[in-house]
Design a protein that fits this description.
Helix content is 46%, strand content 16%.
């Protein structure tokens, strides 16, 4: 019997209303998705434990977690853009992550967002990679500073401002009845809620936002609801938001049985670039596993880790072979 899919779903702070909670539970039930866990997490806990920072790790690590000297800044690209050597900038102390920039510039999240937008509009910004930006931010009365991912603080603020909370659901369903791709594409809907079908959760919240008790129309990051992009991301999110140990989680146990160590599993939760295969391929782990059902995701993770599943497991050697074929298709499409 194929293993069930299990995801982590939460209403974002702007959409935590009784009507939205009822909508989510009804749509899940309509699709045969069972809620096996439910609860709320408030702003103070989200802030103190940096739960939202971990959730958006690829972005947040450059904004709140890492210091500039710890970031993989391409020195030559920094110099070409700003006419200043990276080492010299570090020595001068004029490079800051977004959180430290707020303190130095004496700005709140909204203030930094405005200054960041001015830097972008003025052409004083460079993209180093996915979710990795640096901008020359100028504020009257302060020495200009080079800031990393200054946009994140306003995103973070929506989760940590007093009174904010998320409402979450741990859900599971039969993969044979609903694929992960359809769970995200049809039930959840696209990232931009304005483009989401009316029958999707994001589309329904967008179209009925007044009726559902929201204070403003959803858009951008405030798109109503989040759901895991893959079984592995779901595990990473349960580990982060709920403090679940992998050995206490069904999918986590299967990964451990497949030979993925706890150390590797923990490292994988930050969406690293992984290199694998007889002809080495380097790609984002999360991107590689996106939209896979549980058996395929297990097989793919085992392949990336350089292991194979014992044939007695739910993901058999057939699934490993299938995973290899899927990998080739995904990389060449």
């Amino acid at each position: 019997m194929a293993p069930k899919n299990s995801a982590f779903v939460f209403l974002k702070p702007h959409a935590v209303t009784d009507a939205c909670k009822a909508l989510v539970k009804q749509r899940l039930a309509d699709e045969g998705i069972q809620v096996v866990g439910e609860g709320a997490l408030g702003a103070a806990e989200i802030d103190e434990k940096r739960l939202i920072d971990q959730h958006y790790y690829a972005i947040a690590s450059k904004a709140t977690i890492l210091k500039p000297e710890q970031m993989p800044v391409p020195a030559e690209r920094f110099r070409r853009k700003f006419s200043l050597g990276w080492k010299e900038a570090l020595e001068k102390g004029v490079v800051l992550n977004a959180m430290d920039a707020c303190a130095y510039l004496e700005l709140d999240a909204a203030g930094l967002e405005k200054a960041w937008r001015r830097a972008k509009e003025g052409g004083n910004m460079v993209k180093f990679g996915g979710g990795f930006y640096c901008g020359l931010v100028e504020v009257p009365g302060k020495e200009p500073v080079y800031v990393f991912n200054g946009f994140f603080m306003s995103m973070r603020e929506t989760f940590v401002r007093p009174g904010a909370s998320i409402h979450y659901y741990v859900v599971e369903w039969e993969a044979a009845k609903l694929s992960w791709a359809d769970f995200r594409g049809k039930l959840l809907g696209p990232t931009d809620p304005a483009e989401a079908p009316a029958g999707s959760l994001r589309g329904a919240i967008y179209g009925r936002w007044k009726e559902l008790g929201l204070k403003s129309k959803p858009g951008g990051g405030d798109n109503g609801v989040h759901a895991s992009a893959s079984p592995f991301e779901a595990l990473a999110e349960r580990m982060n938001w709920l403090g679940v140990a992998p050995e206490k989680d069904e999918f986590g146990r299967e990964l451990l049985k497949a030979g993925v160590s706890k150390k590797t599993l923990k490292a994988w939760t930050t969406d690293p670039q992984v290199t694998f295969g007889p002809v080495p391929i380097t790609t984002s782990l999360f991107d590689m596993l996106e939209d896979m059902d549980t058996d395929m995701c297990l097989a793919q993770a085992a392949m990336i880790n350089g292991q194979v599943f014992p044939t007695a497991h739910c993901a058999t050697s057939f699934a490993v072979g299938l995973g290899a074929g899927y990998l080739l298709w995904k990389m060449l499409r």
